[in-house]
Amino acid sequence: MKGSERFCILMTATVAPKGTAGTATYRSDPQVRLADYREGLRFWLQLKDDRIGGVVFVENSGYPLEALRAEADSGRAGSRRCEFISCDFPPPPEGLHYGYSEFALVDHALKESQLLRDFPYFIKATGRYKWPAVSKLIDRLPSNFLVAADCRIQKPLSKAPNPILPVALVLFQTNFFRRELSHLYQTMVPAPPWTRKQFIEDVFYDQPKNVSSNSYGESVAGDFRPPPAPFFQIKRSRRRIFIR
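Request: output the structure for the sequence above.
Response:
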């Protein structure tokens, strides 16, 4: 690892969704999703930012990754180090959101990856998205932090506020995540009844407040938003980037 390299990208992927996750996913065709992941991988490998030293691509449906490996090995993909981890997980338990499987995958990657061990921070990124403003975001982070995430108050169906922590792009200190957060998906509880225990966005918002008595500081650190969702837009009463 070079002196300037502090971040490793952890791309999470499900090329061929299983069970109800497959029927509920807007882009469920494996070939379409594979093309999305190829574009996402190319983005991270070509991104010009010396602070990002490697990319770990972890996939949980057991889909063959030869096409993505070829992309990483091609001359147009850049010289950033890249590691692939493939596993074949079952679909999430009935009554739980797909975030359960995604963070089981993150936990698995942290245990298996050689590359992640080389970096003090990792950026968990949903693999199908591209984040052109990520370098500007990193520019505005403090030199030492534990978690940087986009926290929102959403009101999709009622006037009651529902605070969440979207997980499409989150930055973690690696050792802190291993110690305090890697197990959180295991605390999720299948519905019914529907509570704040079925969605990983709720669980992650609620848990860090209980890690210690330290408060969160507010900082507008950049744009964590993925491309517009194809379903509906959630009305936000405010947007904050919280840095611990």
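The chain has one domain: 7-243.
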